[in-house]
Amino acid sequence: MSEFTKTNDTVEWLGTFYKTILDPAATGAGMSIVDSLSPPDSGPPRHVHHAEDEIFVMLSGQCRFWLEGTETVAGTGETVFIPRGKEHTFKVVGNEPSRHLIILTPGGFEGFFHDMASGAFAIPADMPAIEESAKRHNMSFTGPPLD
């Protein structure tokens, strides 16, 4: 796990590490890739990315994904595609962390993770600031995280 120390390209927010491994500047903003390490029982509130498709490539661990009312569990070696404009969320299940690549097309949303880490925002106390950053990154929150 030593590769997940805080550096210019790796940030930590609420126990999850985000390492940008393909910056959108390298792709003409066409895409970005973030290597994420999330602890057990973690996951975001339900939300919608209005501008980006999101692809999860599971490297280790398991996540339960919710996409507009349909649930699936994905583990090591599996891929989950979330089309832009679709309400979704996920939660790390089991006792192990989940490491997954997040591929975003187009790129740019990884800036949200940097905003959250630099602000050290807490949920729910800082939701107004979190929602403001989400809006700047073409995302809106739509409901609670998975139980």
From TrEMBL:
Domain Cupin type-2 as annotated: residue spans: 39-102
InterPro entries, A to Z: Cupin_2 (IPR013096), QDO-like (IPR053146), RmlC-like_jellyroll (IPR014710), RmlC_Cupin_sf (IPR011051)
PANTHER family tied to this protein: PUTATIVE (AFU_ORTHOLOGUE AFUA_8G07350)-RELATED (PTHR36440)
Protein name: Cupin
Organism the protein comes from: Marinibacterium profundimaris
